[in-house]
Design brief:
The complex is a heterodimer of chains A (199) and B (605).
Chain A: H1 2-37, H2 39-42, E1 46-48, E2 54-57, H3 96-112, H4 123-126, E3 136-137, H5 139-153, H6 157-166, E4 168-169, E5 180-182, H7 183-198
Antiparallel strand pairs in A: 1-2, 3-5, 4-5
Chain B: H1 4-31, H2 41-55, H3 65-88, H4 105-116, H5 132-162, H6 172-198, E1 208-221, E2 240-250, H7 256-264, H8 285-309, H9 313-340, H10 343-347, H11 365-378, H12 393-404, H13 415-435, E3 440-441, E4 444-445, H14 448-473, H15 476-480, H16 487-501, H17 521-550, H18 565-600
Antiparallel strand pairs in B: 1-2, 3-4
Helix pairs in contact in B: 1-8, 2-6, 3-4, 3-5, 3-17, 4-17, 5-6, 5-13, 5-17, 6-7, 8-9, 8-11, 9-11, 9-12, 9-18, 11-12, 12-16, 12-18, 13-14, 13-18, 14-16, 14-17, 16-17, 16-18
Classes of the chains: A mainly alpha (199), B mainly alpha (605).
Amino acid sequence: MKTFLTEIRTSLLLTLVFAVLLCGAYPLVVWAGAQALFPAQANGSLVVDKDGTVCGSALLAQSFTSDKYFQPRPSAAGTGYDATSSGGTNLGPTSQKLADSIKTAVAAYRTVNGLASDAAVPADAVTSSGSGLDPHISLANAQLQAARVATARGLPRASIFALIASHTDGRSLGALGEPGVNVLLLNRTLDDASKSSAR
Amino acid sequence: MNSPNAWLQFALYLGALLLITKPLGLYLVQVLDVHGRTFLDPIVRPVERLTYRVCGIDPAKEQSWIGYTLALLMFSAVGLLFTYFILRFQDHLPLNPQNFPGLSPSLAFNTAASFTTNTNWQSYTGESTMSYFSQMVALTIHNFTSAACGIAIAAALVRGIARQTAQTIGNFWTDTVRVTYYLLVPVCLVFALFLVSQGIIQNFKPYTVAKTLEPYTTQVTKTDDKGQPVLAADGKTPVMVDQKVDTQTIVQGPVASQIAIKMLGTNGGGYVNANAAHPFENPTPLSNFLQILSIFAIPSALTYYLGRMVKNQRHGWAVWGAMFAMFVAGALVCWKAEVSGNPIHQKLGVAAADGNMEGKEVRFGIFNSALFATITTDASCGAVNAMHDSFTPIGGLVPLFNMETGEVIFGGVGAGLYGMLIFVVLAVFIAGLMVGRTPEYLGKKIEAYDVKLVMLVLMVLAATILGGTAWAAVSTWGQAGLNNAGPHGFSEILYAYSSAVGNNGSAFAGLTATPADGDWHYNTTLGFAMLIGRFLMIVPILALAGNLASKKLVPASAGTFRTEGVTFVVLLIGTVLLVGALTFLPALAIGPIVEHYLMHAGTLF
């Protein structure tokens, strides 16, 4: 019984010591280092307009539906692109619901981008990501959307392709992961380009 | 699998894992010895001494297996209650800028059990449930302590094997403190800062409201003044109203410090719901690479520690080799299944070359998603960078099977090694039976008592997984939580109990364990499954450690079964697969295996 009580006492005290060091000091040290060394990343890689308005995060997808914007992947986060409710569809390979939504998305993608009715559609364009906030689309997906965006904006197609290339995040260290086009940043640059050509 | 780049990434990963095993293993030898010396002594030693003094720990005093177990259980119980009460009353605690309410009793119990047992199953949506204080204190403390406890238990078992005619197996308190101070905290400090450089957030600001580029209109359910949905005339369908969306609320918080230990400690409990699929938890392929490397780092190094401690390094590498072979095989199967994609979707027009992208992120692609899924379930991590629920049937079978082997393929920190040593003892026993000789393991006779303990562990785990699955599958509450119909729905239940008992924490996340009507069955049964999976494994293992420590060493003879070399590796793999396969094959057959054939036949549910 004596050991029993001693062990409970030690447990309580060690839990408190750990709480102070691991849950207080440790995150604070990381916080201080992060804010000093990498303030932009530590605060959410926010995309800020010249007037100071935050218009999103470079790491998080937003909804885009009109022809003049590149469209991100479908999103299952909340009612769509809800950054406080991240998640996927969690629908399995034999789900009727998933097959239906892919069927609809494939048809819509072909129509809006003027593709043949039997053209293969990039998988990322018609499937939801795991987070629902995937900021990227595949290079193939972006290139298929380029003609539509060029027409809608009255910009030459070549300049759109150039913008796609400059907004592509390559593989880390040239080897890891897959390249992807950052949709939000690309669309912002497009808006800027349209504004300056209209001037 | 015809992408040379993916093979290169695989080679890089395997090479990096091999490279860190020995140096980290040697470091562990020093950390797990109370008289050990490390380069961090000048800074850490004073903190360590102070901790012992404050808590009344005598570092010179070793414990018997009963003393060791008692200390572990008390410490875990205190931690469980600590977390339970913080979660229940987070609305009265500081650092809650979003004003989240306290959690319900069943959800708080599930979460407390989940983090105490190193499972980190998330029955909650982090970003809309947990205050910064809850994340940082109630959850993060267990990310450290459950990992440190796991490593401590593994060390105690290894000491039991290495010692002879000894009464003690180490001191639980010094093991836990030293692992935390010399290993987990220093690595996490560096790792967390690196993760911030890649884009993980670390701040204490309230959520940021961004003004989006293109406002849009969505349909939401109309609610009355009390927040209840308004129903149409038929009394069932909710009335939908248009809502203009021109903002996006961006999650903030101390994420990086939590993610570093979540991976290194094979915890897996994410800050946000989407876990490591979320760009704020895993922003780049490089952060992904280091996260999966950190999952296997300590488990892999512990095999080196084993070899060093029992003075048979080839045995340590043999155990490593068995784990490595099973890991590579699992990763290849999962990758192949995902890259082949879903024929049903391909018929609808999805490019076949792209594989199955549902639930996956573009920056990781198919290969890194399959690799992550294999690693996180080989280990007891449970973090996910893609939604396993949306994997192809065979792609989803690999994680499921990995967990059902008991997560011994590198495994959780400590848990992987002590789980694997259970199979080593069983393999040695089977080999002994085959040649009709008293089995020996590293000079210790394996007797009836030892084998009973081993079988107790294996049977309790299997019975809990299959029993829980069976109960949920035939219950209204069990079926109510499903997101998918047909065999995939059954797989969701099987996955949940496999994950809980295996202390993994990943999920076929379509399963709703916290339903809106407040049904407590899933959260409570899964909570108990986690506690059974952790503690009914640990207690017999520490008993085994105590019993092995007290035995005499028998000198090796010509008839001694050698626990190194290819024969042993093959026998060990065979034992793991046979026990796993024979126990779970029927359940897997009516889940993912039948679904595989139905998918190829084009059947939908």
